[in-house]
Structures are given as structure tokens and as C-alpha cells.
Amino acid sequence: MDSQTTANSIRLGFIGGGKLAGSVIRGLVRAKYCASSAILVGEPNETARHRLEEELGISATAENREVAERAQIILVGVKPGVVVPVLGELAEPLERKLVISLAAGVRIAAMEKIAAAHFMRAMTNTPAAVCRAATALAKGGRTTIGELSSAREIFGAIGVTVEINEDQIDAVTALSGSGPAFVYSVIEAMAEGGKKMGLGADVALTLATQTVLGAAKLARESRLSPEELRRMVVTPGGTTAAGLAAMEQLKTGDGLIAAIEAATKRGAEMAQENQ
Questions:
Q1: Is the pLDDT of residue 1 over 70?
Q2: Which of 62, 63, 94, 247 has its CA 20 to 30 A from that of 221?
Q3: What pLDDT sits at residue 3?
Q4: What is the CATH number of the domain that holds 61?
Q5: What is the pLDDT of residues 141-165, one digit of tens each?
Q6: pTM for this structure?
Q7: Is there a single domain that holds both residue 115 and residue 197?
Q8: CB 12 within 8 A of CB 71
Q9: At 135, is the secondary structure helix, strand, or coil?
Q10: CA 274/CA 105 separation, integer angstroms
């Protein structure tokens, strides 16, 4: 075992190994944040457990209580509607431990009512799997300076991390949590446009995906605003100007803004449902 690990204690425990939690686990292993042997996942699905063990070399168990008892830091990656019941079952072994919820729509106050753990929330996204996550951290009333530092270290290993107040987390859920799906829709639409204009499907998808990747990287590294970057591409009367005019006519930007608004509102509704 890793030097950070003993026979009875491991560094990180995950309750749930589904899509989002699985992405975080894959990113942490890829980033070599800690030894694979220092990660334990509680996952009821036998097939999912074996896949994680075989692919990543981590340990997995069907018992959430084992994770709660052995892990130094616990990350909760189950569906929002299950978070409160699961935490209620594990209240005793979670006492005074740092517990980071990855779930949308479950407030820290709701979690603090049922267990004496030190709760935080981390709203991240599936690009965590390739160490390109966008994560927002919200601390709870019991969070210590050291625990906040630990959370920054974990999520900083797999991408960009910002700190927010919890009342902003529904907007983060919409922007970075749901955002990859919106971007995939943009990539898909761009590729479809390329196909419509005569490109092969593979060529169109390759070019659309790389164009989005390159544009995002330039936006990040140049520190220029989207407007400034857009002006670098546009020539009056040229092809880009024609394309942007079509997007304006179809209100493409308004549609993306509406997507963020709708996802934010749904996050707030879920918080009411899971009080």
C-alpha cells in the first residue's frame, strides 16, 4: 500500500462510482494525485465495481459503510435524491470527517441536519476524467481552513478550481456542470453543418471537435475577451461575418443563455425537493 495508507485507513473514499464520480476518480488516477490503492469506491452495481477495479486499479466495495469508516476524506457521488438518505445511514462513521458532495440540488444545510460531518460541495464536470474539469467549491459552516485546502488540492489536480458562496452553486451547476452537454450540442451542430456542405462525417466531426478545443485553449491562454477573439477572426463581408449573421438571426446566443437559465432554475427546484 501507499505510504499514505494503512490497513484500515485510505486517503479518498467515494460513495457512488457513476458517471460524475467515475470521471473524478479517473482524473485523479491519471493525474497521479495519489496511489490507486489509496482510493476506495462504494458502488452497489457489481459490473461497475469490477470495471473500476480492472480499469484503474482501485479498490471497490458494495458497502458504503466500509468507505465511511476507512476513508480520510469522503466524496459523495450518488444521485441527488439519494444523498440525504445515504448520509443518514452513515452519520456515525462520518462524524467530524470532511465530506464533499458532488450532487446538484442538495444544500449543505440539509446535509448538516443529519450528520456531524464537515460538509462541502464541489460542483465539477465530466471533463475531470481527462484532467480538464471546471470545479466550484462551496464550504460549509464546519469547514476548516485545512479542509478547504485539501479540497482545493484534490480538484486542482484535475482542472481549474474556483471558490464560491453556496447560493451561487445552481448557476455553476448550469454553467460548468451541465455545460459540457451544451458544448457537445454545439460540436454536433457544427459537424452536421460540415456534412451538409459536403464533408464526410468523420472529417466534419474531427474538425468541429478540434476547432472547439483550439478556440477554448486560445481563450484561456490569451486572456482576451470573447469579443476581442471574435474580432480576430472576422473580416467585414467575409465568411465568418456571414456565419455570425446567420447565428444572430436564429438567436443562437439567446438559446445558450436560456439553457443556462433553465438549468439554474432546475437546480434551485431540486434543492427545494431535497430539503
A1: no
A2: 247
A3: 35
A4: 3.40.50.720
A5: 999 999 999 999 999 999 999 999 9
A6: 0.89
A7: no
A8: yes
A9: strand
A10: 7
4 falls within a domain: no
What single letter denotes the amino acid at residue 270?
A: M
> Average per-residue pLDDT in the chain?
93
Given the C-alpha cell 488516477, which residue does it identify?
29
Tell me, yes or no, whether 230 and 146 share the same domain.
no
CA distance 29 to 129: 9
Burial of 215 (0-12, 13-18, 19+ CB in 10 A): middle
The amino acid at 63: E
Q: Look at residue 159 in the predicted model and tell me its pLDDT.
A: 97
The one-letter code for the residue type at 188 is E
CB hemisphere CA count around 37 (13 angstroms): 8
Q: What is the pLDDT of residues 47-76, one digit of tens each?
A: 989 999 999 999 999 999 999 999 999 999
CB contact set of 36 (below 8 Å; sequence gap of 6+): 29, 56, 57, 58
Q: How many domains does the chain have?
A: 2
Q: Which three cell numbers stand for residue 238?
A: 467575409
